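Hi,

I'm pasting everything inline rather than attaching a file, because the server keeps stripping attachments. The sequence lines come first, and each chain or strand is labelled.
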Amino acid sequence: MSDITIAGRTFAVDEEGFLQRPEVWDDEVARLFATTEGVTEMTPEHWAVVRIIREHYLEHGNAPMVRLLCQRTGLNLRTIFKLFPSGPAKGACRVAGLPKPEGCV
Amino acid sequence: MADRPPGTAAVQRALEVLRDRLDARTTAFLNSCVRCGLCADTCHVYLADGEAESMPAHKVERIARFFRRHHTLLGRLAPGFVGAQTLDQEGLNALAVAAFGRCTLCGRCALNCSVGLDPSTIIRFARTVLGAAGMVPNGIRANVDLALATGNNMGISREDVLETVTWLEQDLQDTLGDPAAAMPVDRRGARVLYAVNPREVKFFPLSLSAAAMIFHVAGEDWTLTSSDFDITNYGYFAADAGAARAIAGRLVARAEELGVEELVVAECGHGYRTLRWEAPEWLGRPFPFRVRSFVEVMADYLAGGRLRLDPGKNPERVTLHDPCNLVRNGGVIEEQRVLLRAAAKDFVEMTPNREDNYCCGGGGGILAASEHTARRIEAGRIKADQIRATGAKVVASPCHNCIDQLMELNRAYKLGVEVRTLAEIVADALVLPAKPAP
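And the predicted assembly:
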């Protein structure tokens, strides 16, 4: 557990920078976390990915399969990796305010 | 008893394991380290942080001093004289940092040991002792539990596997313009079962698509499995023999059920090591099928003329990170080099390499142990420096676990590289056979 301060706002995160309290997440938080992921501007494509991850998490308690991300956004896999350079497991989930996904990530 | 200090039950269980699980090899190793310190310079953790506690001999000593106190005559009679220490909660806490935070089980220290020990064997024993006291990091334990409960370490359902494969298969057919390109699942009697790391199915399927394309072009008779497909084994990292046996045993049973001649392990260092070298010991029997890494299989296809590669399709400079469990501890050393020389125009080695290579810093399950994140990133500095010195734009590594760590090093050390599996690079270089005339 530690704190991270982005643009004057402080958040409790785990050791790998995942938000500790999912309920504090909003669009502004996503924008702030995006700056730590090498995402300079949250485009509509970024938002589409983040919203689907967020909705899936709220409904199922975990991150969606990348297949779902591609099929629901209409983006191909390589585009998703370009949008979030740290990948869908870490980069996109951090921006969407999820805890660290389980497994080999 | 009310006056029992906290942690006593855990200490008791640890003491029982220290007494009951000592085999001849571990006992000999624990008795033999002469603390010469030659191992220090081999360890990426020590080279990165310079702390005495990160020297392999120091980490070994953390458990050896309990062994001497409880299992040697001099240690019982004159503990101070031989540096013996009673096992207590404080000692276990220090051991946990040494065994899970300062060691990735990469085995590089064994290369330099003046008395021929493999310190990583001792650290694994230390992890077993810690496990008895309930002190395996939560993230590693959670992956073991999820794998035992669901059949894979990400809890991916059978339906999710099938839907993902259908989706990838469609994409493969579109890419190749060949409706016959298939990704068979659960096909009995196939020659090859291709088993994967769950993160390929859930988050990183480019390697899975690449493997499918390579199997298709090589004309292989292969299948995936929708259940018990997981090649990872966090039971091994937790040094929990029962869990490790159960996890490996399921995939072995699945391969037997499908009646394949060969189990091909996707790019995963410890997955290969455990299935190829450890699992027959754990299960106490040889398997009716051969176990090979996909790296070996691809190299075979290339040598047999079943794949044609054009290095011009990968024009950027590529370097190779050797996963410890595939290379130093697994024996697959030259195949990945043969492949990269054929698939990339400008392949350069990092230094040192092959069985002398440094760990990426992400081995031994430490990627799942969030409490050691800062140490892990720091220990990765040695690898980051190696990569930077090559001037490469692409880092290839035949291990998904290494790839995860290398991606983090890329971010932390601003390396500006792309990190890829071998299969992805080989698939990009494929010279596809001319399409049959319509």
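The longest helix of chain A spans residues 44-60.

If the labels don't parse on your end, tell me and I'll reformat.
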